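Example 9 (inverse folding). The structure is encoded as follows.
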């Protein structure tokens, strides 16, 4: 099933509750919440107090995307603060530590996933595939919104979809970065079924129409 996950990184934070309600009414399936630590990526963004407030303000599931070093340190706290799903970057720690982090998220009753930067090959995800509910393929370098979609990531999406169909067919593939009505078609055709969208949706005067356009 195709799901649309607006990224609140592009929202007006002074009116975050209203922004969440607006995208819910426009037909969003979940809210994507970007966490940056200034180390894993050269930017800072959101943390626990904002997640706790957003949790109280919406009934939509919250999809937390951790762009932080050694995510195992914080995955439990993000689950407690209101995440329904937590994604960590596989480049952010050792395979062993990341496997432990995925298990910890699932033990807390939440769904878990790993993310791959644009240069990380599909094969590197192999140790994690069976423990993931969703794999996030970054279609821009993580760290900033409103960048241009990287088409060279499309074969990786297809390769992961093919491999997941063999070992974990229920696992979703999410794409994040530069998604608009045009790039959504490419990502969907490659095998992605969860579309993150920041600037495209929040800058649109008609958010329901923008979400309908992403669904195609
Ligand atoms: C970038 C973030 C994205 C970002 C996407 O590092 O992970 O979620 O908000 O923004 P757009 O859709 O504008 O590329
Ligand atoms: Zn993101």
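The amino acid assigned to each position is listed next.
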């Amino acid at each position: 099933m195709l799901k649309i996950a607006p990224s609140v990184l592009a929202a007006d934070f002074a009116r975050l509750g209203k922004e969440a309600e607006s995208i819910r009414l426009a037909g969003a399936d979940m809210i994507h919440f970007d966490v940056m630590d200034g180390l894993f990526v050269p930017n800072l963004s959101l943390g626990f107090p904002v997640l706790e407030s957003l949790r109280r303000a919406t009934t939509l599931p919250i999809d937390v995307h951790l762009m932080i070093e050694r995510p195992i340190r914080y995955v439990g706290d993000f689950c407690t603060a209101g995440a329904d799903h937590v994604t960590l970057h596989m480049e952010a720690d050792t395979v062993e530590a990341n496997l432990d982090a995925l298990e910890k998220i699932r033990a807390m009753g939440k769904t878990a996933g790993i993310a791959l930067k644009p240069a990380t090959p599909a094969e590197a995800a192999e140790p994690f595939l069976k423990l993931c509910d969703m794999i996030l393929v970054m279609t821009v370098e993580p760290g900033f919104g409103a960048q241009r979609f990287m088409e060279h990531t499309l074969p990786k999406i297809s390769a992961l979809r093919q491999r997941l169909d063999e070992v974990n067919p229920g696992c979703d593939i999410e794409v994040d970065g530069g998604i608009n009505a045009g790039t959504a078609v490419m990502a969907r055709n490659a095998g992605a079924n969860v579309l993150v969208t920041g600037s495209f949706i929040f800058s649109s005067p008609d958010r329901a129409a923008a979400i309908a356009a992403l669904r195609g």
